[in-house]
Amino acid sequence: MKYIFVSDIFGKTIELTKLCQLICHKNAYQIIAPYPQELTFKLEQQAYQYFIKKVGLEEYFNHLSEQIAIIEEPFTLIGFSIRASVCWQYLAQQLHPFL
What is the pTM of this model? Predict the structure, then answer.
């Protein structure tokens, strides 16, 4: 079983990666983040403003949908913060054979 972690507005961070490694076996997880690269924000407000201006919920939902569509094995979807809302939206609209 693979675990898919959907990150919050901070994206893929060192802390999130460490959490994934503690919970899962080395290659048994994937992080889906709103940004293609790691970004560093000093304040939550900076991360929120960047997310709203550069990505938004709809775009993140579309990105999540695209990434999940190519998964060919059973998985568990785990979302953090408001990104859990993106997971719920996906689950409400899609039927993936491995969910």
Answer: 0.79
